[in-house]
Design a protein that fits this description.
About 95% of the residues lie in helices and about 0% in strands. It contains 3 helices and no strands. Helix 1 runs antiparallel to helix 3 and helix 2 packs antiparallel against helix 3. The longest helix is centred in the C-terminal third of the chain and has 126 residues.
């Protein structure tokens, strides 16, 4: 039972400790979050830059006309498309960051749960070890009592052997007396005839 508890504790302790793969995944997620943050900052800077450029172009458009106006409109469309793509990338990076946050939170929750299980098993093991020690102590008492009883039995058997020997001697003597008594009675009966 103790070996089984030790194995269970070992298994649960192993579950509470992040494996190399978990740690690697956690570091990858942290790197991904950092990269997403960096990407978000870069996109925000790019958006600000593009927004300023659009404003500059709009001002130029307002100030001029003709072929220049069309070229500026075309450039404005391209810049607007780039801004929209940057916004889309920003949204994607934010979603990836939220997913990474959820994964980290889930791993933290699992680790806390495993730590509680380990604490419970350690407590169970300690109480069982105490019970086992008590049982071992009781068993030693029973062994001591058994040894005393065995010693008393051996003494009694020795005394019984002595008494049996004495009884056999007395019985033999009694049988001799009975034989003698019978002989004497026989002689008396024989003499009376």
């Amino acid at each position: 039972m103790v070996a089984e508890l030790a194995k269970r504790i070992s298994d649960i302790e192993g579950a509470t400790v992040l494996t190399a793969a978990d740690e690697k995944r956690l570091k990858e997620l942290e790197k991904a979050i950092f990269a997403v943050d960096e990407g978000v900052r870069a996109i925000e800077v790019s958006c600000e830059h593009l927004t300023r450029k659009v404003e500059e172009l709009q001002e130029r458009i307002d100030n001029c006309g003709g072929p220049k106006h069309r070229a500026l409109r075309k450039e404005e469309g391209e810049l607007t498309a780039r801004i929209e793509a940057a916004k889309s990338e920003l949204a994607s990076q934010k979603a990836a960051m939220a997913t990474a946050d959820k994964t980290v939170a889930r791993l933290d929750a699992e680790m806390k749960k495993s730590e509680k299980q380990v604490a419970k098993i350690v407590g169970d093991r300690e109480s069982r070890e105490k019970a086992f020690a008590k049982l071992a102590e009781s068993l030693q008492g029973v062994r001591d009592e058994y040894a005393e009883a065995q010693s008393a039995l051996e003494e009694a058997e020795s005394r019984m052997a002595e008494l049996s020997e004495t009884y056999a001697k007395y019985e033999s003597a009694l049988n001799k007396f009975r034989s003698m008594e019978i002989e004497m009675e026989s002689e008396q009966v024989f003499q009376k005839r």
